[in-house]
Design a protein that fits this description.
By secondary structure, the chain is an alpha+beta fold. It has 5 domains: about 5-105, Roll (PH-domain like); about 115-185, Recoverin, domain 1, CATH 1.10.238.10; about 190-260, Recoverin, domain 1; about 280-390 and about 400-435 and about 480-595, Phosphatidylinositol (PI) phosphodiesterase (TIM Barrel, Alpha-Beta Barrel); about 615-745, C2 domain (Immunoglobulin-like).
Length: about 750
Amino acid sequence: MQQGTLMRKVKSKSWKKQRYFKLQEDCMTIWYQSKRTGKTESAFSISDVETVREGHQSEVLQSVAEEFPPERCFTIVFYGRRGNLDLIAGSAEEAQCWIQGLHQLIEPRSLPLTFALVSRTWIRDWFQKADKNKDGRMNFKEVQRLLKMMNVDMNEDHALRLFQDADKSESGTLEGEEFVLFYKALTQREEVLSLFQEFSEDGKKLTLLELVDFLRQEQLEDEGTEELAMELIDKYEPSETARARHVLSADGFLMYLCSPEGSIFNPQHRALWQDMSQPLCHYFISSSHNTYLIEDQIRGQSSIEGYIRALKRGCRCLEVDCWDGPNGEPMVYHGHTFTSKIPFREVVSTLGKYAFKVRHPSPGAGGRGWSSVGEDTCAEVSWSCWPPAEQDPRGQGPWRRWVAQGASLSPTPQELKHKILLKGKKIGRLEDTLDGPGDEAPDVSDDDNGAEAEEERRKTKVRGTQRGSALQKDKESLAQPLSDCVIYCKNVPFRGFQEARSHSRPSEISSLSEAKARKLIRDEGNEFVRHNTWQLTRIYPSGMRTDSSNYSPQEMWNVGCQIVALNFQTAGTEMDLCDGLFSQNGCCGYVLKPPFMRDEETLFNPSDPSSREGPGPITLTIQVISGQQLPKVANSKEGAIIDPLVRVEIYGVPADQAHQETKYIENNGFNPRWDETLQFQLHVPELALIRFVVEDYDKTSRNDFVGQFTLAFANIKPGYRHIHLLSKDGTSIPPSSLFVHIRITE
């Protein structure tokens, strides 16, 4: 890659400034400076870059498409909620040089990161930060400054002793491998070494049988344990000699515990592990609200970036609000507000590109405020922009087979792979679309005499008249081509559970506000659960949440609501729960509901845990042992060191909601040691989510967030486990972690 390039940084059609971009010698940092002033404006780490997009793949670059060809344009996309960087190179060759170079730098991270690789990267980064005079050496004063940067408040005599032990050349400075030695001494894990020696007869190695004992007794691995032990030695033992002897050293043991196999998250559940042949209504579905918005609900920016980010995060239900635009072109924005607008055509094109990065169907919600001309255009654009595999015109394929089988339940995610479902209004019913006129009024037998038969005939006539009136109204207000696009998710108003059971169909869906849903949960919890065993329900945020805040999705999941729409652009506990639930099952955006929430005759009510069929409560015991290399709080004062504590939060049915926390450790974010045990009783573990939160204690104000990790109880691996922390945006912050011991008992 070139070491410096003059390129245009673009923020809008009118804002294009020339900046000089340069990759630093560490090959991990890119900085850029103003061409005019020569002043460095900013820098970013390669580790912050998620991907690079070529051409006009952002709204900003699309706005200058007539001025600059796609061969010279590219977009750098960052993790989290940091804005993209849109650039225009001086030539196509320069653009390719940067695009290919960046891909080479970020692609290795697609491979599993070993503990050793993360540690080496971490060591190099800290060395370069602390080496103020850039001479490749570090004196003791620089080491002291480094310890402060690393969240370590260490006694000066002890620090000097570690420094002198590592200074093998006796030069008074550390360089190269000497600094590695210093770092290893600094990061010595006494709690892990103690555990290692507990199972090692000679205290220096674990034999194959000793490792098997550890895996069975502590990690509760009960199948293929000897094969697993051999695999772990081959994978994580750094010494070739030890590998040949089938033994595991202390270094190898630590590398295993820090690996995916040593994570609290069951690695087998990272892949697609659930049955995907159940009806669609039997799954929780990752869903977003007003997906096009990346800020607030009143004046915020609408952007295709909202769709890209949501889809890449595993979201499967997106919202597209369409309104009439100039020249009959529909526009997407939050109607009757001051949010910016994006062409519907761009949204559909983006969905075509990104919808099937995760290979499962993507139901979409929307369709408000447009005229019949706009509706015709929307239908035309949808068919032209989506490949044939994603279309199912007028209900062919699984739809016709499903209707022919009686339409008692919905199609399955497996059947719907590579298809996009539209949720919206529809003229008539799916049966009408496929087979002509719908059901006629039911016959009343000649044997039914008197008032009861007459009353039934009267009710049937009224219902038939109401359906005819509604059908005529739909025909007057809805374009037929758009109606034909809506196959399964016909939007219908919710008029109560009894009405729905009598007259609704699995091909229909109702949307409820969070307030309406809460009232139904409180008053008719069991009926709500039963309703969601056979029909989809979508929940959306209150209109009062103009700041794009979120409600708790857990209470909606507790009654089996499948499509619980959240504002994906807003970080916080609610999105942590969403990410925690859907991080399993291949991150496909579908999670199978527990059996008692798929039975139409279920007695389950989340307000009464005893209504759940199955075993009794379980006890979850968590020993919080230690933390490793916790990050500093954002915008903290120079030299400030955190006082970390760990809080464990349980989200589930009301009886299971709980939280407990450890004491705080003063002035140690590098290797704090808690050794505290927290215990919880779970009545409905199938619905429980566990959130581990690290905070910086402050006795005078609210604690500051440091990191978190959330997962479903079903994905927990018992034993000694590491928890790899995530930032507020849900991105990884290696090598920050917690070390815990998990026990689950009935």
